[in-house]
Amino acid sequence: MSESRITPRVVRCPACGGDSLYSQDNAARPFCSNRCKSNDFTQWAKEGYRVES
C-alpha cells in the first residue's frame, strides 16, 4: 500500500495577516514565524487583548 501525502494548508497568520504554512513542520503554527508568535504572546501578557464578556 502506498503512503498518501497530505498537502499542508496555507492559512492567514493571525498576527500579521501573511501566509502561514499550517503543517507539523511549522513549529510556530498557526503563525507564520516565531516573531509573530512571540509578538502575539507579548500582547496577551501586557493585556493588549481583551475577551468581551
Radius of gyration: 15 Å
Largest sheet: 2 strands, antiparallel
Q: Shape, please?
A: elongated
Measured as a percent range, the helix fraction is 10-25%
Mean pLDDT across all amino acids: 91
CATH superfamily of the domain at 9-44: Erythroid Transcription Factor GATA-1, subunit A
The helix tally amounts to: 1
Order the strands across the largest sheet as they lie in space: 1-2
Which segments are poorly predicted (pLDDT under 50) over 5 or more consecutive residues? none
Query: Could you say what the CATH architecture of the domain at 9-44 is?
Result: 2-Layer Sandwich
CATH fold description of the domain at 9-44: Erythroid Transcription Factor GATA-1, Chain A
Q: What is the C-level CATH assignment of the domain at 9-44? A: Alpha Beta
Q: Strand content of the residues, in percent?
A: 15-25%
How far apart are the first and last residues' alpha carbons, in Å?
A: 52 Å
Per DSSP E runs of 2 or more residues, the count of β-strands stands at 2
Class of secondary structure makeup: alpha+beta
Q: What is the N-to-C order of secondary-structure elements (H for helix, E for strand)?
A: EEH
Question: What descriptive keywords fit this protein?
Answer:
single chain; 53 residues; alpha+beta; Erythroid Transcription Factor GATA-1, Chain A; two-stranded antiparallel sheet; 1 helix; 23% helix; 15% strand; elongated
